[in-house]
Amino acid sequence: MNNTTIGEIVRGDREVFPPYLYEAYQSTRRRAPTLPLIDVPLTLSELTGPGPAMSAVTPEDADLTRNAGTGGEAIGQRIIVTGRVLDDHGQPVPNTLLEIWQANAAGRYLHRRDQWPGPLDPNFLGIGRCLTDGEGVYRFLTIRPGAYPWKNHPNAWRPAHIHFSVFGPSTLSRLVTQMYFPDDPLHGIDPIMQSVPTQAARQRLIATYDHSVTEPEWALGYRWNIVVRGPYATPFEPVKLVESGEVRS
Amino acid sequence: MSTFLLTASQTVGPFFEPCLLRDGACRNDLTGPATVGERIRIEGRVLDGDGVPVPDAMIEIWQADERGRYNHPDDAGTAPLDSDFTGFGRSGTGADGSYWFETIKPGPVPFDAQQMQAPHIVVTIFARGLLNHLVTRLYFADEPTNASDPILQYVPGERRETLLAGRVDGRVDGRDQSRPYIASGDASNLAPVVYRFDIILQGTGETVFFNL
Questions:
Q1: FRET label pair with B195: which of A133, B4, B34, B42, CA 20 to 30 Å apart?
Q2: Phi/psi at B113 (nearest 5 deg)?
Q3: A9: closest CA among A29, A34, A26?
Q4: What is the DSSP letter of B73?
């Protein structure tokens, strides 16, 4: 993976965002753009976005252990995943929609295109959503997903992860990413995670076990904060900061 | 200046559909009974560097209403907001890479205190193999104000046409085959005006994407 071809086309901060072409992840080869992304001034179209208008969730949506609607509970290690959504100035992003999806405890997705022989769980859909509260805090109850095989290369396995989709206040803050679990031996051999260019940025995709989140006789707790681009940041600013040697907290 | 470091993007992967395209989350039709404006249909395909359809992409759109107002607290415009229009759409792609939206043509929105932008729709593309999403803009090929649009001036002239959706009047033969996500067989409410907007991820005719 260290010898993979990495494309020049990047988005925004090149210390944070993966390149579009990362050959070790084969699906990038024919889908990555080959021409530079064009820098443009930010207008009302980018400084607004659908986030504030999206609010249709119910409390049950955030409980993946029971939201299959079967009356039964999903099998697996029950976990709480919580944290805050912040912007890059450290301000909380309140009342914004998070959508998550994940494999079941055996590493199987409820999806017609996932056909490996891991067992399905009739009580687990693997989908959830919630809004952050006024302080940007979100909270899901789910089960720990399993690792699963994929066909990217021989004996390829994805580390356990939960997919997150976040809106935030503007077009700039839109983010789709994946949360990983600590101490997973598959991190180092996963091209999708390794496409993130720096160790620091990869580390920020890994949740922390937090015993203060763990609930006795109930569920283990993980904490994971998400930082999205704020409404007035520009895509170029962070790179300039690095070049000028300014401290980034 | 102290900066909180951003969370990196990761691909949406192949398995997002049950979550992101579930009932209520998939929004092909942006209009309601009282939405004001010219009803239009947007159709297109997502193609990869070999010209092969991308059957597992997700397209999100964001647009102003007919009067050029965004349904957003930071839009300080004074025209009344259309109470039956959010301006957000989300579509999957079919086996042939096709997506569609039923919406209205947006009004012009400000660029700065002096200039206006030509009517446009912000288009965001997610897919397996896209480690970051891609953002582009749909402009209307038959819109005369494109010539003075300040954002289009940043796009090299020979690539601008990748952002122009061409108008196709009337029904096109075979359209039904390209609409796998259509909810019902009732075609009577479909917009009579269709704009075609193909998204080419790579290679010849590669769509212009913005660094956002």
A1: B34
A2: -65, -25
A3: A34
A4: T
How many other β-carbons are positioned within 10 Å of the β-carbon of residue A211?
7
Residue A112 is a catalytic residue: no
* β-pair type (B164-169, B88-92): unpaired
Neighbours of B185 (CB within 10 A): 7
What is the β-pairing status of strands A175-180 and A161-166?
Answer: antiparallel
H or E element at residue B17: helix B17-20
Kindly report the backbone phi and psi dihedral angles of residue B140, in degrees, each rounded to the nearest multiple of 5, phi listed first: -100, 120
**pLDDT per residue over B72-129, tens digit each?**
999 999 999 999 999 999 999 999 999 999 999 999 999 998 999 999 999 999 999 9
In this prediction, residue A9 has a pLDDT band, given cuts at 50, 70 and 90, of confident
Instruction: Tell me the pTM.
Output: 0.92
Contact (Cβ atoms closer than 8 angstroms) between residue B99 and residue B138: no
Secondary-structure class of domain A50-243 per CATH = mainly beta
Q: Which of B86, B126, B211 sits opposite A176 (nearest CB)?
A: B126
How far is Cα B63 from Cα B57, in angstroms, rounded to an integer? 20
Q: Which of B14, B120, B135 is nearest residue A171 as measured by Cβ atoms?
A: B135
Where exactly are the structural domains of chain A?
50-243
For residue range A159-199, list pLDDT tens digits in order. Answer: 999 999 999 999 999 999 999 999 999 999 999 999 999 99
Q: Are A115 and B15 in contact (CB under 8 A)?
A: no
Q: Check if the beta carbon of residue A153 is closer than 8 Å to that of residue A22.
A: no
Judged by CB atoms closer than 8 Å, whether chains meet at A113 and B15 is answered as yes
The answer to whether B109 contacts A44, with C-beta atoms less than 8 Å apart, is yes
**Cβ-defined contact of A196 to B117 (cutoff 8 Å):** no
Give φ, ψ of B44 to 5 degrees: -170, 180
Q: Considering only CB atoms, which chain A residues are within 8 Å of B209?
A: 33, 37-38
Contact B125, A37 (CB under 8 A): no
Name the fold adopted by B17-200: Protocatechuate 3,4-Dioxygenase, subunit A (2.60.130)
Both tokens of residue B42?
């947007």
Burial class (CB in 10 A: 0-12, 13-18, 19+), A63: middle
